[in-house]
Each structure stands twice: as C-alpha cells, then as structure tokens.
Amino acid sequence: MSGWSIVIEIQVELSRENMHKSSLDKMQAFKDKYFHERHSEHLVIFDLGSQSIGGSYRQIFESPNWKYIGVDVEAAENVDIVINNPYEWEEIQSDSVDILISGQTLEHIEYFWLTMLEIARVLKPGGMCCLVAPSSGYEHRYPVDCWRFYPDGMRAASQFAKLEVVDAFTQWEDQDYADGSNVWHDSVLIASKPIDSEAFVIESQPLSERRLEILSDKGQTNLYRLQVQRTQQDLADMQTKVYQAEYYTRQAQSELDNTKIELDNTKIELDNTKIELQKNSQVVEEMKSSRFWMLRNAWFKVKNVNSDIGISSNLYWKDDLHLTINDVSFNLSCDTKELQTNTSSKDSFLLGKPRHLVEKAVAISHKEKIKKIFEMGILQGGSVVLYDQIFQPQVIAAIEYSAEPVNALTEYIAKYNKGSVVKPYYGVNQADRSDMGKILSSEFPRKDIDLIIDDASHFYKETKEAFNISFPYLRKGGLYIIEDWAWAHWSGDYWQNGQTPGLAGKDAMSNLLIELFMLAASRPDFISDILVEHSTITVRKGTGDLPMGDFDISEHYLLRGKEFGAWL
Predict the structure, then answer these.
(1) 158 with 77, same domain?
(2) Do residue 194 and residue 242 come from a single domain?
(3) Domain assignment of residue 117, given as a range
(4) Which of 70, 106, 243, 507 is the 20 to 30 Å CA partner of 257?
(5) 230-258: pLDDT as tens digits
(6) Who wins on pLDDT, 347 or 378?
(7) Do 423 and 367 touch, CB atoms closer than 8 A?
(8) Is beta strand 315-319 parallel, antiparallel or unpaired with respect to 322-325?
(9) Contact 397/378 with Cβ under 8 angstroms?
C-alpha cells in the first residue's frame, strides 16, 4: 500500500434504506472541503458498507488518480471485499487508513462505541473520519435500529475513542429535498486521529477479548478507572493553567503598579501645565484682539463646518468636482464619455463618482471598523486610491475587467510603499467563479472582508454571480455596496432608448434588488438589513452561517413554490 492513502466507510447492517439526498450532499460537502485540492494524489478509497441500495458514495469519489474499493459484510452490488466481523476488522491493519467515511450506519450498530475503537485503530495518525447518522426519523430495522445522534453524542463517541473533533453538527432545519430526506435531520461528525502516535495507544489485546472485557463488570471498572485517570490529567492541566494565570496576574499587577506611578507623574506634569496655562492667560487675552487670532478663528470655523457634514479634516473640496485627501488630488466625473477617454496621472486621479458617494464613504469610515476591502471595478484607479486614503485599510484587493494595468495606480503603490496593502488584479471577469475564487481565497482566507464595493459591470447577471461568489467572504455584520443599480430607470435617451451599445438586451439591476429583498425576508440570518438609495444598494450581512459549498442567492429565498425570473 506504499504511496497510497486509504479512505473507509463503515456499514454493518445486512442492508440499508435508500441513500437519501441529504446524506449524499453532506458527504459531497465533506469531500469538497477537505479533498478539493487532492485530485492529483493517488488515493485508495475504501467504502465499507458500500452495498448499493438506491445509491452509494462511489460517484462522489470518482477521480482518475483515485482507486475505489467497496467493502461490506456480505457480497452484493458495489461490494469488492467482504469482511467477516463488523467489530473486529482483521482484514484492515492498524494505522493503515487515511480517511474513513460512514453513512446511515451508527444507528444500526448495537455497540457503536466498539466500532469507534476500530475506527481509531485503523486510522493513520492525522487520518480523518466523516460519520453521517440520523438525529430523528421513523424506525427502520436493518436488522436493528438502536440509536439517534445529536452533536454532543457525536463528540462523546469521538472522545471515547481518543479522536479529536474537527466538527459536529445537525441539520436542524428542513432543506429543499424532494425525496423525504428532511425526516432524518442528519447529524455529522468529522474527527481526526492525533498526529502524535505516542500519545495515542491502542491495546494489542485481540478486540474480541477487549469487547467482552469492556462489557463485563471488570471492564466497567476499568472504564471508570480510565475516566478517573483522564479526570486527574485534566485536573493537572487545569492546575498548570492556574499557575500560569497566577504568574500572568502577578505580571499584570506589576505593570499596573508601574502604570499608577506613571499616572502620578502625569498628574504632576498636568498640574505644572495648568500653572503654565494660568501664567499665559494674559497673553492669550491679548492675542484674542489681534488680527492673528481673528484669522485663526476663521480657520477653525471652516474646519468645524467640514466636521459637521461628516468630512475628514484631511479632505478638502475645491468644488464639487475637485478634492484633495492628504496630498492626493482627485478629479470627479460621471460623464460616460469622459470616463472612457480621460486617464489618471501620477498627480491627479480620475474618479468616476459624484460628491455624495465620496461623503458616504467618509461617513462609513466614522461609523464602521473597515480594515479589509474588496472592490470590483478599478477603471482609472481613482476609487482604489480614494478608499485607501479614507479607510487606511490593512489590505484592499481590487479587480478590473481590462487586462491593461493603470500606470498611475502602479506609481501610487510604489511612491507610498503600498505593495502589501493595495492589490490590483487586471483581466478578471467579476462573474468568473474560478478566477474570483482564487483571488478571494488568497487575499482573504479567513473570510473576514469588512467592505465589498461592486462598481464593475452594473449588469444583472454578472453582478448577481459576483455577489454569489464574494458574499461568503464577507464577515458577519460586514457591508456589501452595489453602485449604479438604478441605471435602467434613469431619465435620458442614452438610458431609455433600448439601443445604446453595451446596454441593449441587458436586464435591469432592479431584478437583483428584488431578489435581495426576498432573501432578507426569508433568511434574515443571511441579510440583516438593506439600505436602498438613488444610486447605491447597501447590504449588511447577518449573523447566520452560510451553507457549505457554492452559494447561490436563488436557492435561499422562498416563493411559495414559484420561480423568479428576470422580467425588468
């Protein structure tokens, strides 16, 4: 078996109910999450309990470099190897299996904890298992039906066998399954065997003897003794943590004492400063009557006006079309022809936004903690530089459909040493799931984007697909802004004649707005609120977890069995 990984699924009943859709989906999600990048490896996949009754997991693990071997307790379709004893797998060596999967099995095993011991025995250090079993549903005896499992039960079974729990959950809510899968409300356990093999000991005593011993009074005593040993070890670990906490407490107390001394010194300095201020009060009174003080007051009035309307004191408007932030200048334009022909320079960036959208970004910077940004639509680089100046983020990644880099943006990155912060990607279609997925997973692997701005195609289908791709990477409570959504409803021949090149035949973005409304109504845990303005849609992500796998907004809003189609 050298050079091959092994995956095993356990099934001990003589036959089983038809493979239901929810079970297949959960195993597919497990494979996609943990083996998506491993198709080039030579994997040998053992599917114990592989007898095909209304389906199997075979098709999920089909790949040119993978070998699939079906294993069960009796000869049948999709069974390549027959094992003699479901509680003692003599056919499988210890530490020989990389992955072990099981579906609709544990509820039919009378002593499933013995099965868990065998699972732990055959797994290699670092190996994983995925077990799917119902948490509810009617009795289905093959030949017995003993158990139903909740997440805590799954974790307990894993801990009994000294496996480390990676994930344990139950599908509590009904999903859109037409085959009756919802009756089972499947629970899933994903666990791994500790890599430190010396810390994981499986007794060499034959399992048939260990099974009898475990079920005997002596065995129960040994189990209690094992639990006591584990409790003692836990207590020892807790005592160590207590010692560490006491040490850090002493350190903190010492730092606190030093801080108090520093505060006392600061109070002394403050008192001295007050004395100096009192001495200078006469000078201040004299300055109030001087021309200098009048000019100073006028300057503060201008600054306060800027603050009152929510604009940073480092942002100065010359007029509605020209502004400066710090030492960077911007020329604003919403004229389609100017945006297509004019370019940015190293001294001034072309910005395709009206003044009120700039002020909206500044207002967001005052209310929200924005450190990670993803923007679609670079154009001449003005918006990327604008957001970098306003939010001062840790990273801002941006994509552009055109493959030609913006020279002014390249010079900005070099001049201000922004190579680790500003990340432009050119030649990227916002609806390309492959390219977009690579960029998002590379720049935001923790799926913790604070702000996403879509100022790219402004077309319904492309914008919807970009939302499906990037919304899972937005953190809970994060903002997703779609600009220029209402173009199909603006006045003017350019927008309304239906023959304008580039717009002819394109569906209105209002269709996506309707779908977002329906999703917010059906799944407030996905979208907590929506703000619709003349030119922008602002979506705030809810606190719920999105489903595993590719996300599609169309699959999650409810329409009483009807279908929604773009009609605007």
Answers:
(1) yes
(2) no
(3) 5-207
(4) 243
(5) 677 778 778 888 888 888 888 888 888 88
(6) 378
(7) no
(8) antiparallel
(9) no
Which CATH number do you get for residue 370? 3.40.50.150
User: Tokens 């154009």 label which residue?
Assistant: 379
Give me 218's structure tokens.
């002596």
Q: Is residue 332 part of a domain?
A: no
Going by C-alpha positions, the residue among 200, 124, 143, 207 that lies closest to residue 14 is 143
Supply the pLDDT for residue 224: 59
Angstrom distances, CA of residue 303 to CA of 310, 330, 442: 11, 20, 41
Question: Of the candidates 236, 265, 289, which is a domain's last residue?
Answer: 289
On the question of pLDDT at 84 being above 70, the answer is yes
- The answer to whether the CB of 59 falls within 8 A of the CB of 49 is no
pTM attached to this predicted model: 0.48
Give residue 32's Cα distance to chain centre. 15
Tell which wins on pLDDT, 347 or 270.
270
Q: Is the pLDDT of residue 314 over 90?
A: no
Three-state secondary structure call for residue 536: strand
Q: Is the pLDDT of residue 202 over 50?
A: no
* Separation CA 448–CA 437 (nearest Å): 14
Both 137 and 100 in a single domain? yes
Contact 52, 77 (CB under 8 A): yes
pLDDT of the residue at 489: 92
Among residues 527, 508, 523, the alpha carbon closest in space to that of 555 is found at 523
Beta strands in 366-502 (DSSP E): 372-376, 395-400, 422-426, 449-454, 474-483
